[in-house]
């Protein structure tokens, strides 16, 4: 039996004097499996909350999966999505009636309030206005990160949430992943003693970088959001969350080094489909990535179900000839840094460093946390705790769970667990059910804006909340 299958089949419950998160199995001496089910107890809800999804792209679809799997807790009854293919697909999945289907977010709010909450999973530059309107009309909100493209808008949403006494859950989903929950729990219980510093690496993975931040929706910071927020506000947030002390100062460096026109190989063309002489040997070939390997093709928004692979291939190639996803990575109008480092000082002299790197063959966060009495080392697949006093090492492995085709339910299990907490918060009208209420998630956004200010102005910046 391979390791993954073993993790799926373990069912022995173990106790622990220090660890309270549910542990479901032991596969070797000092190696334990962490269940994806959190230790917290959920209260029964009287009826399912009703939700309108604004933006039926990747993230809206992921969050909608929870409703599809748990109709007694959450029902999606409305939808706003300008892309007809996405609108039709999402509406069919959730049986949304015609009168509750809209093309734009503005149309949703022309109607009197007809649901409990809204999911806002639109592009970054379309978070602020629909969120403010939703709060004004009395909706609770599940808001995709980043909260908004500017610090001023982020703070305005926080103030509106307070003014209207509505719930805003920010999709900082890593706070809900069993791996990071275990990390925070160990630190809070004093396993490593007084925390001194954190080193955190986010390897974007080179093809993910090319897809999302060179060719994709977030390729230009001026029209979307700086990459430190678009990609790594998760990471700033998780660093702040596990340290559990206020941030004070930040400094950042980084630039766009490689995906530039002067680095385009001789013989390259504006598109990979234009007869590029080096396409077959280019590691960033759109033809290889989308057509040959069929990676990330859900982002192309073309109907691929029910047709042959040959027909699929034709549709993919046509899309590459007309969209940014087929353009040469060296000849885009991108400006996002492809390597970015930032150092942060927290209260009581705790320091942290975050490195966001495009040029890796792998993804998955790597974290090292150093304390006076022990340390933690992990990569989201395993978390190893070493006790300095005894020299003993203990390894924790999050249980592998797949949900409706989303490996590990997304973000190490955090996606679905976050939505579950949001359902509880709305049903009980209790924002304390959330780990990522906007009142606590705002700090990591301020950190991100100050990091970008530091990078662009070449100076250390104070963080003021």
Describe this structure in words.
- Helices cover 32% and strands 20% of the residues.
- By secondary structure, the protein is an alpha/beta fold.
- The strands form two sheets. An eleven-stranded mixed β-sheet has the order 1-2-16-15-14-13-9-12-11-10-17. Strands 5-4-3-6-7-8 form a six-stranded parallel β-sheet, sandwiched between helices.
- The protein has 14 helices and 17 strands.
- Among the domains are: 3-32, no CATH class; 185-259 and 334-401 and 438-462, Dihydrodipicolinate Reductase, domain 2, CATH 3.30.360; 261-326, no CATH class.
- It has helices at 3-9, 58-69, 84-94, 105-108, 128-136, 151-164, 178-188, 206-215, 227-230, 233-243, 286-292, 309-322, 414-428, 438-457; strands at residues 23-28, 31-34, 49-54, 74-80, 101-102, 117-120, 140-143, 168-170, 195-203, 247-255, 339-346, 351-357, 366-371, 374-378, 383-387, 393-398, 461-462.
- Helix 6 (151-164) packs antiparallel against helix 14, helix 10 crosses helix 14 and helix 11 packs antiparallel against helix 12.
């Amino acid at each position: 039996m391979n390791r993954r299958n073993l993790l799926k089949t373990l069912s022995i419950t173990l106790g622990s004097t220090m660890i309270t998160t549910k542990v479901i199995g032991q596969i070797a001496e000092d190696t334990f499996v962490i269940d994806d089910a959190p230790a917290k107890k959920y209260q029964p809800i009287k009826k399912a909350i009703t939700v309108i999804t604004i933006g039926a792209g990747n993230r809206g679809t992921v969050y909608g999966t929870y409703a599809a799997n748990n109709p007694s807790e959450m029902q999606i009854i409305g939808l706003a999505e300008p892309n007809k293919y996405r609108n039709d697909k999402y509406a069919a999945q959730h049986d949304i009636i015609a009168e509750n289907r809209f093309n734009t977010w503005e149309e949703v709010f022309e109607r009197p309030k007809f649901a409990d909450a809204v999911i806002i999973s639109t592009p970054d530059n379309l978070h602020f206005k629909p969120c403010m309107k939703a709060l004004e009309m009395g909706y609770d909100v599940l808001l995709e990160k980043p909260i908004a493209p500017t610090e001023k808008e982020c703070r305005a949403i926080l103030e509106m949430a307070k003014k209207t006494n509505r719930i805003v859950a920010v999709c900082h989903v890593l706070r809900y992943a069993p791996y990071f929950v275990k990390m925070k729990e160990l630190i809070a219980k004093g396993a490593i003693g007084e925390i001194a510093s954190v080193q955190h690496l986010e390897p974007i993975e080179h093809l993910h970088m090319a897809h999302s931040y060179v060719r994709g929706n977030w390729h230009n910071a001026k029209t979307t959001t700086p990459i430190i927020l678009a990609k790594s506000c998760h990471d700033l947030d998780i660093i702040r969350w596990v340290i559990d002390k206020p941030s004070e100062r930040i400094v950042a460096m980084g630039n766009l080094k490689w995906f530039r026109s002067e680095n385009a190989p001789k013989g390259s063309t504006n598109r990979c489909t234009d007869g590029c002489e080096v396409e077959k040997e280019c590691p960033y070939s759109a033809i290889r990535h989308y057509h040959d390997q069929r990676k990330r093709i859900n982002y192309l928004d073309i109907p691929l179900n029910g047709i042959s692979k040959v027909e699929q291939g034709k549709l993919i190639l046509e899309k590459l000839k007309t969209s940014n996803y087929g353009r040469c990575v060296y000849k885009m109008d991108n400006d996002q840094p492809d390597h970015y480092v930032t150092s942060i000082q927290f209260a009581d002299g705790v320091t942290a460093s975050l490195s966001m790197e495009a040029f890796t063959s792998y993804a998955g966060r790597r974290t090292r946390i150093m304390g006076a009495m022990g340390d933690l080392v992990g990569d989201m697949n395993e978390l190893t705790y070493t006790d300095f006093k005894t020299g003993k090492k203990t390894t924790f492995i999050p249980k592998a769970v797949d949900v409706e085709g989303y490996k590990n339910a997304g973000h190490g299990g955090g996606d679905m667990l976050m939505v579950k907490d949001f359902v509880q918060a709305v049903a009980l009208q209790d924002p304390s059910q959330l780990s990522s209420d906007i009142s606590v998630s705002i700090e990591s956004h301020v950190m991100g804006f100050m990091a970008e200010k530091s990078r662009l102005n070449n100076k250390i910046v104070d963080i003021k909340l």
